[in-house]
Amino acid sequence: MKTAIIVGAGIGGLATAAKLSSKGYKVTIYEKDSKIGGKVNYIDAGNFKFDLTASILMTPHIYQEVFDYAGKDYKNYLKFIELNPIYRAFYSDGTSFDLFSNTSNLTKKLEEISKEDSMGYYKFLSNVYEKYIIAEKFFLNNSFTSSLDFFNFISLQKMLKINTLSSSYNHISKYITSEKLRNLIAFQSLYVGISPFDGPNIYNLIPTISQLYGLWYLEGGMYSYVNALERLIYELGGKIIKNTAVSEIIIEKGTAIGVKSVSGIDRADIIICDADFPYAVKNLIKAERAKGKYTDKKISEMKYTCSTFIMHLGLKKTYPKLLVHNIYIGNDFKENIQSAFIGKLPKHPSLYIYCPSRIDNTMAENGTESINIMVRVPNTLNNNIIWNDSTINLMRERIFNDLSNMEILSDIQENIIYENITTPQDFLERFNSYGGTAFGLSPTLLQTNYFRPHIKSPTVNNLYFVGNSVHPGTGVSIVLLSSKLAVEEILNQ
């Protein structure tokens, strides 16, 4: 029986473990934390349950594919609930706007803005949808382990076809005249930790996929997916060792042969690293030759995503006008969005407000509410900000000041009975996320596809990587694709 060791029990590591176990591998996962899931984690506060970070679920078939691959019916593990409307947007002037997945309702709402913007929105969706189909076929599902996989006539032709040179916001502005609608669409590119004003327009595929395929909710929250993967792994004979940090990936004669932890050295035929790639190469791979081009200097010079400040609030009353997914667009939208990318805290933050207890009474007791309020902030690589009590209180004050513009949440502060804060420092210390980023390496044009760290190590045999900072990119569904590609590479070996 072939053996595999996986470093880290994040989503990518768990999915890889399940798939390899289903193919007869003896799989062991080492996880440094007491809880599995990595950043896709949870808080259990008794009367309240919270997803720690991830909450947006697009393309459920990617989540389901792991169970199909293992010969299991996902319906025995998970319950998906389709959302409609997919978002409710609130603006600082007191107005609101619902984005429906239903076309007839959506069209009516868009026409309330203007028929020109209604037509423009559908043209925008059509344009980005074509780019998505190309990206999915030629880029997202290819490993690019060889330069010829990318630098060939077909790939380069398709790259020209999707034309990602303009920014997300400029691309949106070609079709939409309403500033409110532009900002609502642009906000969603923040889900991969880049600025809509600087990042390539390929990330307009996020609002496009959400609109065309819908958004979904998992009963019990996103962490129910982690629980389902854990159950699947155990059923298939896999092993998860918690509270055990790996300190080194052991490499002999150019081949990964095991890992070192406080328990000693454990050997395996295959090593898969689900720790954040920049952290892993810098800290777990000791030999300079094995690092390849990713020297400590190279790691420090690469571009990274922003981070996130999250308030987890248990409230003693319900807020019926909230949906599961809500966006608040604050004043001076561009200036405050850009703050996260130039080392400043936003003065008037735009907010993502996640309220799963609107449809799921397992997340909060009857008559109460469980919500996350998320703001994009700088990562810890910028030394201007120290995440101490003073900084946290400043962010809380700014968030509550802006929430006072939302009539439905104007009393939120006086109804808090539970509060927990997650900062970039938590991403750095708890999850070994390089620079305290929320999404790893930034998916710039020169850090995507062949130019992003590869799933299969080019310098070390039998060593593979999955996660946010490797190809194909960041986000839970995309990390699941990295797992899919890693398993394909391992089985093809």
Automatic annotation (TrEMBL):
GO terms for molecular function: oxidoreductase activity. InterPro entries: Amino_oxidase, Carotenoid/retinoid_OxRdtase, FAD/NAD-bd_sf. Residues 11-491 form the Amine oxidase domain. Pfam families: Amino_oxidase. Coiled coil: none annotated. Pathway: Carotenoid biosynthesis. The keyword Oxidoreductase applies. GO terms for biological process: carotenoid biosynthetic process. Signal peptide: none annotated. The keyword Oxidoreductase applies. Keywords: Carotenoid biosynthesis, Oxidoreductase. PANTHER family: PHYTOENE DESATURASE. Belongs to the carotenoid/retinoid oxidoreductase family. CrtN subfamily. NCBIfam families: crtI_fam. This is Dehydrosqualene desaturase. It comes from Vallitalea longa. The lineage of its organism: Bacteria, Bacillati, Bacillota, Clostridia, Lachnospirales. The gene is crtN.
